[in-house]
Amino acid sequence: MILLTLFNLFLLLHVSKATDCVKRTYSGDTFVCVCDAKQCDTLNVEDKIEPNVVHIYDTDQKSSRLEKSETPVDSIKAKSYSSNQFVLNVDTSDLKQKILGFGGCFTDGAVININTLSEDLVKQFMNDYFSKTGLQYNIGRVPIGGSDSSVRAYSLDDTEFDFDLSHFALAEEDTKYRLPMLKLAQQINPEFRAFGSAWSAPAWMKVNHALNGAGGLIWTPGDVYYKLWAKYYVKYLNAYLNEGFKFWGLTTENEPAEGFRQGYAWNALAMTPEEIRDFVKLDLGPALVAAGWGKENLTLMINDDNTNDIESYSSVLLNDAEAAKYVSGIAYHWYSRNYPSSYQILSKVHDQYPNYFLFSSEAGEFGVASQFLGTWNRAEDYAIDILEGLQHWSTGWTDWALAVNTAGGPNWAKNWVDATIVINATAQEYYKNPMYYVLAHFTKFLPIGSTRVGCSVENAPANVHTTSFITPDNKLVLILINTNNDHVDLTINGFAKVAVATTLKPRSIRNMVIAL
Ligand SMILES: *[C@@H]1O[C@H](CO)[C@@H](O)[C@H](O)[C@H]1NC(C)=O
Ligand SMILES: *[C@@H]1O[C@H](CO)[C@@H](O)[C@H](O)[C@H]1NC(C)=O
What 8-state DSSP symbol labels residue 425? Predict the structure, then answer.
């Protein structure tokens, strides 16, 4: 009888856990979690931690999705260890940069996709990204006018030679889709804040008279077209403000280096480092300040391009005090990433310009989304880029489109991409890729203001990545990635009162959290 009850209890626990994620396997090497109007998994990270207890959260290729366990420190106390063993030393007195936040991009394509879901599913989807039972995102990126992730190519003033921008207006994509979703994100998470990035100026302001292809603004900084382009930014910020949404930040523009590529397939605007420096100094900076969008009211970020361009775009601008005074941070994209060299560039830029924060403003995977559902190495790509960015002074990370359809669109330039969440409007369901759960290891554990603390390794095997943070409510968080097909043993000093030993699962990410 007792045995039977215990057996039932076991079944019950097991069942309730299995219904958490509704697993489905496509062609990928691991599963996605399916959400529809009837069921959807939620994420739970416990705020309260008893003294001398370690909370452990695992996500791996095989089966775990932010799976929690807890253990007393005493039970994982390290036995004496040999000299060739993998050791992680955490130094909580060595304080480094603070976190600004994590999030994703509200592209036209993303907000159009989200809007294909029923009203209830829209709420559930937004909770999955922004609420306490989801990723707790606090950052949103917004394309100013069109980007490739859209159903059409456009700017917010396509009236030729409209030199007073009297025809400037927000698009239907802004008013009908994006604004309600930005407001919903802010309602779900009051800490939510957004930054804007423009892909291209109106074609009539450009030498090539097109939104795509190679070409910059007509004439030079300080002249009519650059002044108009600055005015366009101010009009945009004010138009959103009038609609009840205040922007937190702005980048000088998306990927200025791409605008030099002949035949570039989608919206781009060429600007050299010198042109951006002079645009900020002569046009954009003064226009923002005059309109009340000075540094206290708007966080201006430069570069917003790949790490292979970050040194030239940063140094030319920040070495000029008149331009630099308008700037708060340096944004970067992941497409030229290469471990470890591109991350070493981040550290180099930080060392040269320590007063300007580094921040990842775009990362994403390519391809027709339905062909990559449940692909573990895409989750590893995200995890490594986020962790190594943080280890090299970055203050946050921004995913590309919050959602794509199963084709990886919509995208007027046919630049099909993958996303953390893929929406299937026909079935009224969406799929959470493994990226979603790997993101949770950062977004849910490192709130705004968390401080990185020093950690060093001895005898670290290849393909293991580690970082450590103290949160504003005084928890010490370790994040450990193992991309090996075998488990990895390690000993950790400086985490608990005594050295502890742990084993990382194969192809996994693990967080270990303790109250200080
Ligand atoms: C910031 O905005 C407030 C309110 O609009 C304004 O009074 C103030 O002058 C602005 N500050 C700067 C530096 O632009
Ligand atoms: C999307 O839903 C439709 C209708 O249920 C289905 O036929 C199709 O296979 C689904 N796509 C994916 C990638 O699951």
Answer: T
